Amino acid sequence: MRRILTLALSTFMLAAAWLAPSATAAERVLLAPGGMKATLSATPSAAAGLRQLRQKAVSQGKVRVIVGLRVPFAAEGLLGGAAKAAQRRDIASAGSVLRKRFASTVGRDPDAVQGYSALPFMAMEVSQAELDRLASDPLVLSLVEDKPRRPRLAQSTALVNAPQAWQAGFSGAGQTVAIIDTGVDGKHPFLAGKVVSEACYTKGACPRRASVSTAAGSAVPCAVRAECWHGTHVAGVAAGKGPNFSGVAKDANIIAIQVFSRYGRGITAWDSDILAGLNRVFELRNSFRIAAVNLSLGGDSLFHDHCDGYDPAYVAAIATLRSAGIATVVSSGNDASTSGIASPACITGAVSVGAVWDADGWNCDDSASAVDKVACYSNAAPILSLLAPGSAITSSVPGKGYRESHGTSFAAPHVTGAWAVLRQMAPQSDGDQILKALQDGGKPVTDYRSPFMTKPRLDLAGAISRFTTLTITRSGSGLGTISINTATGVYGDRASGPADCSSGCTVAVPLGLDLTINSAAAPESEFTGWAGACTGPSPCQITVTPNLLVNAVFTGVSHPIDLHIAGGGSVGITTTTGGKTCTGDCSINAAPGTTASLAATAGNGFMFSGWSGEACAGSGSCALVMTGAKSVTANFTPAYPLSFTKTGTGTGRVVFSPAGTAGPECGQSCTQNFTPGTVVTLTAIAASGAKFRSWSGACRGKRSCVVTMSEARAVTANFSGR
Fold it and tell me: Where does the Bacterial repeat domain start and stop, copy by copy (predicted)?
């Protein structure tokens, strides 16, 4: 595609100092040390960059700049809640102060001043005098030009083995990819129902000529030039789905962000708007499972090594997304360079992608092309991350159509889609692990152009083969938790969180990864050992091999129940694991936290008089909550039986006072036990229509029967009808 603007500006900024994302990095630091004036005097290249910005401001009347704010910063995903809120307040406060200091600049064109909620940068359009004021302002840490970026222009998914991933059940389902480009035609059949969020950040090229919009329909393709098909094509490669062919992550959703404005006779995306798009993706991290953001765009300056000093705002933005588990995939550029790639592909943490052919044909240098031949236009450098199909790529364009296109623009979304597929398969793997799988599982392709670098070409089946399943189970009578750690911390991406193995789990893990598997026994339990791939004590150190099985055994610490029986009788004990009946002193163990039940049964000549000891009371059944060792005594006292029988043609009741072991009354007959010497009174009460006639046995007459229990007794109550 024709170049829009050629820039070769030095960067006016302080020496870059970047805290790379890691599991432990959470200290907020300035993105550059020292002071602005010290840098101007000490760094000739920085002074030259400022002179070029001044010259541009003089020649054009104004120049767009990205202003770095003097605010200590860490990628937000690495910060705790309070530190995160404090950093946002500091960014907002610094931006507010700078807006007040440059009130006339803001008032001249409010839309030209942009701030970013999660990034310590502002974009402004300033005159030479305002530029000089910024350069000397103590709140300003860096200044770089707000540069324009241009877009980088059925067989490719088969070449990267996406169908094999689909057959294995991994198609990007549940994942979302963000496309920051010229807009996306969400009504295209290839993309129908996929666009779940839209935004637009431009210089007046959003719907209704707005500069900012996040409403539905915000990311419709820009309408200023023919190149506005670009974003729809890119989105189709990453996540399109059709009846005959599909994009790489055919079941993923799309966040569409339009950032291109009219620029001369073409279109361009300003850094300030791209950064706003990246900031928007970060703000949506809790609303969608965002696997990756795609930037099929870039500038004209090329870099052999990482270019963090050239674009510090992109360093912060990409690192912030990484801290939330979101990859930034960037096309390497189409300048046919073998010694440099464009920015922001050259930023540390960006996943840079060059292009290969996916079919035989003719290359742009008139040499014969072939499958996996590096496209002659594709930029390359030692820091290039991956290659992917970028030539002869058929995908969607606005208006329900399709077209074949060439460019690293269309290589990058292959990787973006692949990232979503792998994120679905291995949600706990972090960005470094996914990139390593893509690189180790890719097909090595040697660039036929000097200096003959070999880089991995995307192969989804190969990447998937770099993972295996780790199954962890828990067994035994006890309770406990299991966790997985790597050398850098808990195994789990910051977006998806750690693998939950408290009751066992099955997770996808990269082959060859060194893991530490920890066990933690719950209260009243103990860890008693491993089974399977782990042996010995906890923790278990293991290197991942195919299809690992690990079992952690936890044993409940049993508590004893010591039972003493006083007198004649038995006690039945029931626990969660069984039980027993004791006719004499006995002991049984019960699991911590469970409840054991005890029921007493008196023997002949005895009655149960109640429980004693620390755990039970009364004369009913006893429920023991096993919070520790328990000691219980079941007391049985000698007793004489009083046998009772009711006879005759009438009906009635007989009440015992005091109540016996069978209660205050009994039915047709019963035997009540009483302690020796107990005086028992039996009162007969005839029912309606009946008459109490007399007692027999140990009692006589018609009055209440009084029996002294000096031996076994028997009494009969006679009732008749009237």
Answer: 571-638, 670-720
Q: What is the pLDDT of residue 695?
A: 95
What per-residue confidence (pLDDT) applies to 262? 86
**Domains in the chain: ranges and CATH:** 36-146 (no CATH), 149-464 (3.40.50.200), 467-556 (2.60.40), 559-638 (2.60.40), 640-721 (2.60.40.1140)
pLDDT tens-digit profile of 667-717? 889 888 888 999 999 999 999 989 999 999 999 998 899 999 999 999 999
Angstrom distance (rounded) from CA 357 to CA 375: 6
Place of tokens 């006292």: 637
pLDDT tens, position by position, 625-659: 988 889 999 999 999 999 999 999 999 999 999 98
Tell how many helices (H) and how many strands (E) occur in the chain: 13, 48
Give the per-residue pLDDT at 44. Answer: 54
Can the peptide bond before residue 539 be classed as cis, meaning omega within 30 degrees of 0?
Answer: yes
Choose among 30, 40, 47, 19: nearest CA to 121.
30
Write out the catalytic residue numbers: 181, 230, 409
Amino acid identity at 179: I
Give pairs for 53-60: CB < 8 Å, separation 24+: 53/9, 53/12, 53/131, 53/143, 53/145, 54/128, 54/131, 54/132, 56/145, 57/126, 57/127, 57/128, 57/131, 58/128
